[in-house]
Amino acid sequence: MHITQYTDYALRVLIYLGASPERATIAEIAERYQISRSHLMKVVNQLVQEGYVEGTRGKGGGIALARPAAQIVIGEVVRKVEGDFTLVECFGADNQCRIAPACRLKGALYQALQAFLAVLDGYTLADFLPNAEALMALMQVPTAHPVQLHRPA
Amino acid sequence: MHITQYTDYALRVLIYLGASPERATIAEIAERYQISRSHLMKVVNQLVQEGYVEGTRGKGGGIALARPAAQIVIGEVVRKVEGDFTLVECFGADNQCRIAPACRLKGALYQALQAFLAVLDGYTLADFLPNAEALMALMQVPTAHPVQLHRPA
């Protein structure tokens, strides 16, 4: 059982932006986490569309949280970015399992999924940021192959 | 977010065996659900190893539940057959995410996972079987390409 890497990256971006004292760039976040910049680009685009992140262009530009961290509910983010909650075949539109019309397992799994999301609804991004400095410090560790961060001086 | 097809099949096998009035064969279950017989074989092997299913050979042989349905806890089955609960990278041994030592998201996700499993711990196989006849009836529907069921007469 996994959540997608895409959702994982979305949460990492939000944590980074919440912890960072200034605007950031996608290149910088990709470098700090050592993850794919093109993957991050898609993730950030959706976060902008969903109203969690805002970007400004030009000198001093970059991306930042579009609202206070305390107003970013983690369960809500996961629902929006994870997208596919087809836990098992019968959750999907193309279900082929014959017993679906009478099967009570689906209801139990659905209830379990709701419990999963309900826990995450109990957290906002702010809950993950009391140790923002420690998080940023962990990301300052020099990398083996540092890249130029296109961040305005 | 998904659980594996393997776990889905394990649960389907248990439901089938719980609903069936007599011993079944893997070929029969594969035919009724129209799923791969070789996949089912692996699933049933594990269910036998875990003590949920027992098999007998020879005439009148086949597989059946190894214990009463009320003693088969769904959360326990899912824990055993799903195997990999690496929800995100940092749950795994080969985590590369730098902020893991200070990240509180992992704890929240772990708590959500426990809530998911706790719901399933509240169900036994018996909870899915009050309508066993309806389940069996759904599986009796003739298939487009019926195969010979190697079931003893």
Task: Please explain how this structure is put together.
2 copies of one chain form a homodimer. The first copy, chain A, is mainly α and 153 residues long. Helix content of chain A is 46%, strand content 5%. Chain A has helices spanning 5-19, 26-33, 37-49, 74-82, 105-121, 132-139; strands spanning 53-56, 62-65. In chain A, a hairpin with a 5-residue loop joins β1 and β2. The model of chain A is unreliable at 143-149 (pLDDT under 50). At the A-B interface, α1, α5 and α6 of A face α1, α5 and α6 of B.
The assigned CATH architecture of chain A is: Orthogonal Bundle
Largest sheet of chain A: 2 strands, antiparallel
CATH topology grouping of chain A: Arc Repressor Mutant, subunit A
Q: CATH superfamily membership of chain A, which one?
A: Winged helix-like DNA-binding domain superfamily/Winged helix DNA-binding domain
Unreliably modeled segments of chain A: 143-149
CATH C-level of chain A: Mainly Alpha
**Which series of helices and strands of chain A comes N to C?**
HHHEEHHH
Query: Given the C-alpha coordinates, what overall shape of chain A results?
Result: elongated
Largest interface in this structure: A-B, 50 and 50 residues
Task: Provide the β-strand percentage band of chain A.
Answer: 5-15%
Oligomeric assembly: homodimer
Provide the gyration radius of chain A in Å: 18 Å
End-to-end distance of chain A: 43 Å
For the residues shown, what is the average pLDDT of chain A?
Answer: 88
What number of domains of chain A?
Answer: 1
Strand tally of chain A: 2
Numbering strands along the chain, what is their spatial order in the largest sheet of chain A?
Answer: 1-2
Helix content of chain A: 40-55%
SS-based structural class of chain A? mainly alpha
Number of helices in the DSSP assignment of chain A: 6
